[in-house]
TrEMBL record:
This is Cell division topological specificity factor. Belongs to the MinE family. The lineage of its organism: Bacteria, Pseudomonadati, Pseudomonadota, Alphaproteobacteria, Rhodobacterales. One of its GO terms (molecular function) is identical protein binding. Gene3D superfamilies: Cell division topological specificity factor MinE (3.30.1070.10).
Amino acid sequence: MKRLGFPLWPRRPSSAQTAKDRLQILLAHERSGATPDYLPQLQREILEVIRRHVKIDDDAIDIRMDQGKELSSLEINIELPHTRP
């Protein structure tokens, strides 16, 4: 049987990529009448989810929030602990 040049089942994006895509959509979307109060809550919830899976120190987290007239962005950089293979 000859193999086709493409996989029979498409690859699913990783959960990290899916989360990144969702955050980009959420944060890049224009605020349509919503108050900026949701950003601190969003920040807390994102960190809670990450802490469920990885133990991180508070000083390993860098959070930046930019607010413009039409768009707001939330950037979270986390230094993850090294894991051994």
